Amino acid sequence: MTSTVSTNAADTQEAAATVSATENRVLFNDGWSFRSKVTAFAELGGSSSSEWADVYLPHDALIAQQRRADAPRGETNGYFPGGAFEYRKSYMARAEDSGRRLLLEFDGVYRDAAIYVNGNLAGQRPFGYSRFAVRIDPFLVYGGENEIRVECRTHLDSRWYAGAGIYRDVHLITKGSGHIVHDGVQVTTPSVEPGGALVEVAVEVENAGPLTKTFAVDVVVIDRDGMLAGTSHSPLTLLPGTSGTVRRRVYVENPALWSTDTPNLYEAIMSLRDGDETVDQEKVSFGIRTLQLDPHHGLRVNGEVVNLRGACIHLDNGPLGTVSMRAAEERKIARLKAAGFNAIRSSHNPMGSALLDACDRLGMLVMDETFDVWTTGKSDYDYAFDFPEWWERDVEAIVAKDRNHPSVIFYSIGNEIPETGTPIGSTWGRKLAEKFRTLDPHRFVTNGVNPFVSMLDTIVPQMKQRREAADAESSAGGGVNTMMAGFGQMMGHIQSSDAATERTEESFAMLDVAGMNYADARYVADRERFPDRIIVGTETWPSSIVGNWALVKADPRVIGDFTWTGWDYLGETGIGTTRYVDQGDGGAASFSGGFPELTAWCGDIDIVGHRRPVSYFREIVFGLRSDPYIAVNPPANFDRTIAVATPWAWGDAIENWTWDGFENRSVVIDVYSNADEVELLLNGETLGRAEVQSFRTSFNATYVRGELTAVAYTAGAETGRFSVTSASDSLTLEIAAERTELRLDGTDLGYIDLLLTDGHGHLRTGHDRPVAVAIEGPAILQALGSGNPATSETFSATEHNTFHGRALAIVRPTGKGHITVTAVADGCEPASITFNAS
Questions:
Q1: Residue (of 541, 611, 601) closest to 571 by Cα position
Q2: Which domains does the chain have, with CATH numbers?
Q3: pLDDT tens column, 688-706
């Protein structure tokens, strides 16, 4: 049965009155404290415990810890130590809640979380990325104070910086005996046409009371303007201790579709009534859109072909560590979208709710990834030990979290899983794929398969021989450096081999889309070998974007490319750093150069949100930018010999024409453009024209202060220009906020750019210095940092050095009122800015 209603103001008012119910879901982030964990037995034996410190959730327990050069496997997690931590909170349980069901919903705790209520274990979760709920009402004392305690730990369990602690939101959920089951609502759009859409709402209801009940389930759909779009109703009779599902089909006329360009959202409000009393209510945001996938068109959203301009991202938010908050995630998605991306891949773990909400609101497609390991571990103490017992519950958790988000179009069952190369291993992949399809048949299943990793059992012995041979040749100038320089080419050869084809065929065949990591060498040949195989580059070298994007444009079966990475991240230190011979052997023997390296330095955008030159290059390749872009290689590097530049590295060039102390020295200038040729002008005088090949060209010049301009020409006509100007000798500290009005709902942050300029908007990139920050008013300094990929500084201090003239301060409001932030740097006048928190 389908119900329709008119969308006038009277109907909207009546609907609002119908669904007004007591709030049953509240943010539970205040009033917590934390410390490094010490057991009672250890304290009894004389061990001293650390002091409890008040914190606001979400909180990363690791980000403020002292980094150590001797941290085991420190290059993987940025040289942060592991540890065990505990959180506690006092909770007053109301007497009137006795007999109700109370749940604590944790959006993510890293990791091996154990939840205690008044000293009693209420629940646990090994996986650090799953959203889970713990029932606490059996352990509460009503009318009195109760202690909620959360324990967690981390140690050699991740290949990147994963942080620690309660790093995502916590909610307290209150339910009566008759209630809508937690995560029990699913909204789908089985039929979408230009004039209307059918919205199906499934609501699972439980009767935990002692009597048979006939409930009423009301469904109201509200459009993006707050107007009533449709309603439906159904009675539901449940015996004691049973549950049932109500499915209502609501017809929405002239639907506003969700897409990356028009991220229109609707809200479904489900109310459960017992007689005239509304006993429970749930609200779900959703979008109306269609997905299609076939070898002739590739991926279509709402009937339109979409090529995925994708970015892999890790979970951290730079100076915040792994803290996930609405403001941080919206800022990240907005900047990725402004840089030309229309899709992100969570690598290599499920996303948090705040990030998914940001993708829904701003219009970003999502590939949500589940696991980095199955049964074969990659780190000493990772999830592989827990996988056989917990994988189903963790798959159920990601689907429950994702299934109402229109941004999510792919589930990825893994990343570079060695088991994908064996018949027995592929049985695990099939279990995972089918589990996802059973729970959510409306999205596509993929897997980030790296055929190189799928063949590690045969490749590792070969690599050992290759490494020994390289060591023997090192005295002749080859060796490990030569081997690493050819790493991408070697991997491509193995990826496209017949052996790799045979080993991975079953693992690819079970997927809707064959996700390939660094396997673009397979794309063309797979047209003949597997004509129905649809491919997505789930992880690719940033330096390969020109060839990869050409493959996407040439073949509808190749639906997109996800670069590693869209946003720089903590850990896997230095994999994208360019290293020079005169740096010694420290950086030549491996991807990492050692402490104090902090980030991977392979992102299009650095950890504070500043676009790097590769970002503009990619935007041009995508066809989204007509103006050229200038990136200048530091004159100090002109005569240096590169020792290691992995395929993740882009180089050291920056947008800058201020090189104090290098006047009249040679410099190499790169210009990115989609034009036929580029002319370079210095102070109005031409330095010549050069043909553009593969979207770039280079000029050798002599550095002279002034204005450098690149002019692009196609068929002889100018198509765009871009200039960089030398800064004057004055030095000014500028302060700028992205927003000055802050919410007090526990989800907001204030972002402040701290810039060293000449007072006229030109950065003084060569004059970095410490900047100190002080706050007056109801706020805390949440973090202070820069994009520097190698620093021993902490993000929790009130002073931090700029990097290329930039630093970023992040403040968190703690109360209503005005917040004044003042920054001070040597040689500069203090700079201030004021926020209003309300």
A1: 601
A2: 2-24+177-286 (2.60.40.10), 25-174 (2.60.120.260), 331-455+485-568 (3.20.20.80), 626-633+659-725 (2.60.40.10), 732-837 (2.60.40.10)
A3: 999 999 999 999 999 999 9
